[in-house]
Backbone:
């Protein structure tokens, strides 16, 4: 996201110079019960060498957004409007054959569960080598050597031998490393990591995050990192976009969003995080209520049914008027800038410690 100098990570009007530029993206699905508006007017940028963290609860639209970038939705049931430019190339109108060429080559994805991405029937080395053969026209031998090299880079000991193993012979952490090797073998410009460490224990998670940071330095890729865990985002991301009900509700540099968050939903997420220094047994403070149905989203601000601050806005504005995330604002909320600052300093921050 373009946040190096600007306020709160607002996307530049045209996304000029961005590796990935998403503008006013709408994604909806036809279901038996009606139209699900999974992404509803989303704009953001990702720059080379930077990591954008996308945070939000399940159903906030984060994964749908990234599957749309990869062109992985069934066009029979999906309507996509808006613009997705990858290095200047428009993806929403690209043909499947063009998208196929981009996937694994210019843009690659790391999934939460490597077992769903790795086939049990082929060796790890063969699966890592395959995209290299496909996109670079390399021979089997060259691609295999490159796969072994990549396994070494992601920290698999004795990669020459381990490349001949099948996925079930790898531990969970090693499979995740293998998937990172597969994602990076073609040196993609953009890497999308969807909850890549959620299934791993804390020590392995820290190792994988360090590995991703090191590889980003080496390869210079832009990374979109999707998670519900603000602790992971704090460690990984340069910029943050908080999503709720298919929209961005807050964005900024990681420092801005974590040090002085402005949206009640972000306050709720921070407040519901476990803390190392809190009393053992002290209850967490989850956000009241549940994420809204996207079949029939709430009027006005989609967060209003769960928001404990809406009375401070006055009138019924939160229920009737949709707050916008304009380029010069960091959060889509009707509270004034003064109110946001005061509430955060006097009511939220003391609870966070
Ligand atoms: Fe809460 Fe109103 Fe702000 Fe929405 S616009 S987050 S309901 S205060």
Residues:
């Amino acid at each position: 996201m373009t946040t190096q100098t600007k306020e709160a990570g607002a996307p530049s009007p045209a996304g000029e110079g961005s590796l990935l530029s998403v503008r006013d993206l709408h994604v909806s699905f036809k279901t038996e019960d009606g139209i699900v508006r999974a992404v509803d007017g989303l704009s953001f940028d990702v720059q080379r060498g930077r990591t954008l963290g996308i945070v939000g609860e399940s159903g906030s639209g984060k994964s749908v957004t990234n599957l749309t970038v990869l062109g992985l939705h069934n066009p029979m049931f999906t309507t996509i409007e808006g613009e997705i430019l990858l290095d200047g190339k428009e993806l929403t109108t690209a043909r499947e054959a063009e998208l196929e060429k981009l996937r694994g080559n210019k843009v690659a994805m790391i999934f939460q569960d490597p077992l769903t991405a790795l086939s049990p029937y082929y060796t790890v080395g063969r699966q890592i080598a395959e995209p290299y053969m496909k996109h670079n026209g390399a021979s089997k031998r060259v691609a295999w050597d490159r796969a072994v090299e990549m396994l070494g880079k992601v920290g698999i000991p004795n990669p020459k031998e381990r490349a001949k193993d099948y996925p079930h012979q790898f531990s969970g952490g090693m499979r995740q490393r293998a998937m990172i090797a597969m994602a990076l073998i073609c040196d993609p410009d953009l890497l999308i990591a969807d909850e890549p460490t959620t299934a791993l224990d804390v020590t392995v998670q820290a190792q994988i995050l360090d590995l991703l940071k090191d590889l980003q330095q080496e390869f210079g890729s832009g990374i979109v990192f999707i998670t519900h865990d603000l602790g992971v985002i704090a460690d990984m991301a340069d910029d943050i976009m908080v999503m709720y009900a298919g929209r961005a509700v807050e964005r900024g540099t990681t420092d801005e969003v974590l040090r002085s968050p402005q949206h009640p939903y972000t306050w709720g997420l921070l407040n519901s995080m476990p803390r190392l220094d809190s009393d053992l047994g002290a209850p967490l403070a989850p956000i009241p209520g549940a994420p809204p149905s996207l079949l029939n989203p709430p009027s006005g601000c989609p967060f209003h049914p769960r928001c404990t601050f809406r009375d401070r806005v006055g009138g019924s504005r939160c229920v009737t008027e949709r707050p916008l995330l304009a380029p010069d604002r960091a959060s889509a909320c009707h509270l004034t800038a003064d109110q946001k600052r005061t509430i955060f300093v006097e009511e939220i921050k003391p609870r966070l410690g």
User: Anything to note?
Assistant: The longest strand covers residues 34-46.
